[in-house]
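Exercise 7. Predict the joint structure of the components listed below.
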Amino acid sequence: MSSDSHSRVNNFAFKIATVNGSGSASANALIRRAIFRMGVPVSGKNLFPSNIQGLPTWYEIRVNADGHTARIPTFDLMVAMNPATYARDVDEVRSGGWVLHDSSWPLPTNLLRDDLHFLGVPLARLCNENFAGARERILMKNIAYAGVLAALLGLDAEIVQKLLGETYAKKKSLLDSNYKALGLGYDTAIDTLECPLPIRVEPMDATGDSIIMDGNSAAALGCVYAGATVAAWYPITPSTSMIDAFQAFCGKLRKEEETDRSRVAILQAEDELAAAGMVVGANWMGARAFTATSGPGISLMSEIIGLAYYAEIPAVFFDIQRAGPSTGMPTRTQQGDLMLCAYASHGDTKHILLIPSDPEECFYFAVKAFDLAERFQTPVFVLSDLDIGMNDWLVPRLRWDDSYRPDRGKVLDAEDLETIDHFQRYLDVDADGIAARTLPGVHPKGAFFTRGSGHNKHGAYTEDADEYVDVMERLRRKIDSAALHVPSAEIRTARGASIGIISAGGCHRAVLESIDSLAPRGIAVDYLRVRAFPFSHEISSFLGAHERVFVVEQNRDGQLANLLSLETGVPRDSLESLGTFGGLPLSAQDVVEGVLDALGSAAYPKLPPRRANA
Amino acid sequence: MTYILKPKVRHPGLPTNALGLTARDYEGAMSTLCAGCGHDSVTAAVIQAVFELDLPPHRVAKLSGIGCSSKTPTYFLGQAHGFNAVHGRMPAIAAGASAANRDLIYLGVSGDGDSLSIGLGHLCHAIRRNVRMLYLIENNGVYGLTKGQFSASADVGTRSKRGEENRQEPIDPIHLALTLGVSFAARGFSGDKVHLVPILKAALQHDGFALVDVISPCVAFNDHVGSTKSYLHTREHAQLAVLADFIPPAAEITASVEPGGVRSVTMHDGSTIQFRQVPDGYDPTNRESVENYVRERQRAGEVAMGLLYVEPGSVEMNENLGTVDRPLCELPYEELCPGSARLEEIQLQYR
Ligand SMILES: Cc1ncc(C[n+]2csc(CCOP(=O)(O)OP(=O)(O)O)c2C)c(N)n1
Ligand code: SF4
Ligand SMILES: [Mg+2]
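Solution:
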């Protein structure tokens, strides 16, 4: 931790409360990007309702010089633009913090807290006076509060203006009104409020080699780079933006110039059963094909997932997890599909899972997923979640190695087939559990019957016990051997650590931050982040080396802990589950409190209680 | 049950096609269906159609769902890639396959249970997408493989083997498909190979989704008196109204053309469908008139048969999607990966 971490310069969080559909997203992004351009680590999280217009929505921005960008549940400043949520918004501000509100109307007195500073700017009035038309007034009010924020937080006005210019480069008419609104807010704040606040931004040089990106865009870009040519999907939050991004990227990157035709097929299916079926059909033909969905989609796809597993057809599934069984809470995050995906479908199945922790890994794991799917001829799941997929993360710039070539696995081409006597689809020639496949249409000798019904190692239909068992045992060996090829666990050890934390996916940043804040309390922690399933051997070693292991995850039942116990044989009750599952991204505070509680609060001083009901 | 390979004995006298192959080269494994099952006759018609069309077997992809009918792709085109999928999902798998490789010839076989109940949604959407394929429904009014339950195509009043009467309205795949905008619709009878083969040939050459509903009696569960899908009932009530011949490109048109309502329709590849006999005023390219005709026949207690509808200007799925002419699965990786320099450029928008 840096020495000035308790100073509020470049170390604070604020939240903007607005109404869904009012166009606040671009104003919020403007502020977040300006902070980033000033070289200061920043992240943005969107809390939005399952609604198109009218319900409350929030955007949380955390600024942290040390690069801690996990969610924190209390805020230094609230931009309270939605009267419907004033009460709870004001409640989330830490003592001594600030509330920026629209003073065109008086704030109800029952909301006033005497431990907060209330900053009023007559935003609606300013916009009514300066803009015509109801829609423009609403939109410009957003840019106006961005102007106020720029002044309050000491943002570089030139950077903010330049960003606006870039955003509206192609819409000159919009640019002028945006400049005007920005100036209205900025100037009024400078004239009437004390600017900047003690929570403010000062230029740093910590984002030079970084980008701010959401995981769904990164995963989509990974699919482009992996060479995927078919995507099939059925719209579902929070995965939809991944296909939207894929479509947008392909519009630019996959056009055959001479003909204006595209080198990709994106099929909007009639349901997830069909989406999965299309992915399997396309992979059967030898294209790299994927789908993006969320938990409800995986439930529907399970039948086809089992088919792909048993018939040994590559397929890549992006599960952008959301909260809950059934429809649950579509716009809230969770890690609730771990068990579902690990063993999706009936009968004996087991699948390869890749679990990215941020958008950067979404990109690389997307590419890896296709390589593994083709190498092992099996479904591969990339388990992202709403927080990773739809929020704006600070990550290192993505890099590409131009010497990369797809691993197509064992595919016999026409030449290979010419030289062999008789092709037998499921014969384990190399004794590694993986049999060579052929693609339709390539050579008459490669023809065989792909089926989800009982088959023997020659590829023929069977109802014979030994023949069935033979294939299923090979499948077991095949999937188990994938443990050596999936991304290995990330391990960080600490001197004198007595306890271990195991976590996965989007919990990573909160866990890292919690480890940082446990250390000064004399609690040293070894940390292992699971990045894939089947579990690699270092996970068993880590479990064996620690007497006390906390498993941090975002679901009710401790699914990662369950899976660890099931697959490594460590007793389930030796693993202590920690975390939250209410649908909001995990914060370091959740982990710290959980560890301290478990270790006995008497021995360690507790953090001040949280005010927020978040 | 095991996989039974038929002995490949070449009879020197067998006729060969343009590829030098005999009809036997288009056969598959020995059927394991009940003796007399209508589905086996459909298999025989498929073999003859692909033989006569000179199709290279390995350029055909045959797909099916689950059911007795869906087993039949094992029994033809032994040298073609096959995919015996899961119950009802074949249309979706075929759509994905066609998106990945638009150059293969797709031949799907399904049953009335597979297509009209569990897979009804997928069938409807494959029709809407106009996936280029021959889609065969071997329609017996029952679920054969699960032992004789009524399917969604069972007519009102038809009786099961146990004597139970069906009271629910049937789904007629031809009606349904015409409503959904299908680009080719035909109905055949497994007991009438002579008229089925040209239908299959035209369907295989069609540039879009070609639905062929074949009444294909189930001798085990639905061939008794009181069934409306028995051999006898079908023979008595089939109204073979629209007779058509399929004529490959550049072949001399020799079919006898009877006056009155007769016409020929040119397909995308230059081949023609020659309609030999159609009812007065019937236009096989006019969706409304076909719909009306099929409905009229049904009201009269008959089943309209033949090549009922064809849309000459059909635009298949990949053309609609605007994908490149080459199969996507064959595009070299170099054409697909934008490379590191482009990645740098792309990332400017995330700064
Ligand atoms: C998900 C699922 N549900 C049920 C079944 C059982 N099942 C197998 S075939 C079949 C019906 C087949 O009927 P149809 O398509 O008409 O074929 P037929 O046997 O009559 O030719 C059913 C219900 C299955 N295989 N999968
Ligand atoms: S049960 Fe019916 S459909 Fe199945 S094979 Fe026998 S006759 Fe054919
Ligand atoms: Mg049937």
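Discussion. Residues 1-5, 608-614 of chain A have pLDDT under 50 and may be disordered.
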